[in-house]
Amino acid sequence: MAKCGEGYLCEVCGQDVGNITDSDLYLRYVIGQLDSEMLHIAGERHIRCNPVLAQFIVDDRFPAVLVDGDFDKRDLDTLHVAQQEELVTRGWRRLQKVLSEGLPVTQLPLPEVRASLEE
Ligand SMILES: [Zn+2]
Q1: Is 77 strand, coil or helix?
Q2: Which phi and psi (to 5°) does residue 23 adopt?
Q3: For the chain, how many helices (H) and strands (E)?
Q4: 10, 77, 81, 93: which sits with the fewest CB atoms below 10 Å from its CB?
């Protein structure tokens, strides 16, 4: 993402998405739900401002997000929820390493996502 002096504003709450580790776009990129080209085009959001995805992050460092309504994970298929929690939580943890380990953006996606991109 090219930074041009001003931050990217969240489509939902209007606040600056100051950090890649807080970015819904990048989280979806890490877990293979967003094409890298879309990183520059799609609207930015905080992870917590996309609760339908954020509810699947299960980590002490991430305040739990609940969804009221149709996509509440408590109403979804248990197996589906378990798979999503595994994937999204792993993706979120990987995203948190970007700053500490200095991963380049192309190395961000989870291993299986990168493998499928290279096919
Ligand atoms: Zn927001």
Answers
A1: coil
A2: -95, 120
A3: 4, 2
A4: 77
pLDDT of residue 93: 95
CA of 65 to the centre of ligand 1 (A): 13
Question: Residue 19 C-alpha to ligand 1 middle, in angstroms?
Answer: 12
pLDDT digits (tens, 9 = 90+) for 77-86: 999 999 999 9
CB 26, CB 103: distance < 8 Å: no
Residue with tokens 């293979």: 32
Nearest to 65 by CA among 12, 19, 111: 12
Q: Where are the domains of the chain?
A: 8-98
Name the one residue in this structure whose structure tokens are 């709450």.
13
What is the whole-number distance in angstroms between the Cα of residue 93 and the centre of ligand 1? 19
